[in-house]
């Protein structure tokens, strides 16, 4: 089918939209690919939908290729399954919750682990049924605090989410590896430059989770990579030991300082200054309490620093509430002595207040001297860790700044930081959901076996924008062919019948040869047509015009700008 500009539902804009800051947002709107309906809510117009469908198809093909089966869930979901996993509450304000006319609670699905687990439980019973991988390409809803950059961070967006169900850990590792390989193929095919970064710390949970980040300055994720190897990690996940940390690590537990009382900010500052290592001011210090946490069903403890302003007490009820359903216990001196700097996470005062889960930081942000109160509260160990860097007002830290130039944890070089757009995320869930819903298979020995799961997401709509971030110039979009809305954008440059007849004939022949053609058959001036062709970004621009007098047409490569003249009789073969 030939797409004709004369009838195409498309109006390009000469000006950038006022609300757009990043290139993909500006260009996708200007080129008439998407239109805003509301904050973080966009519609796809014909050219946009064509690209979206191409990307979706690549994702679908690669999922099918690893044996995943496509199904489709509704977005409108009852509350109960999400209540069972506590995500109804845990998701906080990001969850769209609605009531039906009878007053029953529903939500618009932000991700579908619960439903997939229940569905597999409903259909499968025996070990012979497993393993199985299921996926959907479906609209998700998240009431993002800051919807941003058009389709890059929407409140309604399309995700491919898949889930693997295996009988044992080896099976899960295999499903995970298959997804990892499929994701590489997907992102290679759509022409993306990307890195795979550890999303959780290797020290804490193996390679249980990795993110695929499209390299882009406009990305919201900061990652570090080693100058000497392909080690890369989200800054939130890096666990290394700084020189100071190592030196403290060497010290015996006896060096932990005991004080008679919970320190006030002043006593803390006095104490730190008395150690003579460096001078501290009150502004630099923040009291941290170390706790240990573990997820239900897990036997692995993580250490977590909970920060409070230096003059305030920590409210442990709130720490527990923020971390639910994880178990929380105060850190004992023995725990601390065993692993003084494996602080997995950090809760700032703001996060605590908002009931958010903690984010992960590099433990080297907390270097310094341990501070333990023991005498009056033997079970209450307050460990103060002093940041070498400033805390931002909400208690978070620019971890990337801390890590830049530091030694890489794999010992291969130093770390450099860069930014990226999260386009995919693969995750070994383990038995979190199968425990909640009791997903078992009857084993060969007649005993029930608990299923282990993985979940894997690709932001299909976000991927369209990420591709644009890497593929554009000042004149417009520059699509990689695999996802382009057409192969050839033919400009009829001239009004006489020869131009029209030749263009029509060539368009028909190209179409027959399987080449996807946009034909600019409008009455507009060549200047308008050329500008639109650049903006729309199809890989090859074909100009049918003056050259016909010499029997040639002009082929322009959209990306390189290179122009070549090709004989009219040869052009179909040339382009097919
Ligand atoms: P982000 O860190 O960008 O908020 P996320 O970690 O919350 O993403 P996941 O829950 O891992 O997202 O979802 C899987 C994929 O869905 C992400 O890797 C991303 O590509 C995509 N995605 C998530 N949120 C959005 C959104 N608001 N708009 C578009 N795509 C999104
Ligand atoms: Mg998110
Ligand atoms: Mg993320
Ligand atoms: Mg993610």
TrEMBL record:
Query: Do you know which Gene3D superfamilies this protein is assigned to?
Result: Anticodon-binding domain, Bira Bifunctional Protein, Domain 2, YbaK/aminoacyl-tRNA synthetase-associated domain
| Key words, A-Z | Aminoacyl-tRNA synthetase, ATP-binding, Cytoplasm, Ligase, Nucleotide-binding, Protein biosynthesis
- Catalytic activity line of the entry: tRNA(Pro) + L-proline + ATP = L-prolyl-tRNA(Pro) + AMP + diphosphate
Q: Tell me the compartments it is located in.
A: Cytoplasm
Q: What does this protein do?
A: Catalyzes the attachment of proline to tRNA(Pro) in a two-step reaction: proline is first activated by ATP to form Pro-AMP and then transferred to the acceptor end of tRNA(Pro). As ProRS can inadvertently accommodate and process non-cognate amino acids such as alanine and cysteine, to avoid such errors it has two additional distinct editing activities against alanine. One activity is designated as 'pretransfer' editing and involves the tRNA(Pro)-independent hydrolysis of activated Ala-AMP.
Report the GO terms under cellular component. Answer: cytosol
Listed under GO biological process in this entry are: prolyl-tRNA aminoacylation
User: Where in this chain does the record put each Aminoacyl-transfer RNA synthetases class-II family profile domain?
Assistant: 35-480
State the species of origin: Allosaccharopolyspora coralli
Q: State its Enzyme Commission number(s).
A: 6.1.1.15
Chief site of localization: cytoplasm
Q: What interactions and quaternary structure are annotated?
A: Homodimer.
Q: What is this protein called?
A: Proline--tRNA ligase
Q: Name the Pfam families for this protein.
A: HGTP_anticodon (PF03129), tRNA-synt_2b (PF00587), tRNA_edit (PF04073)
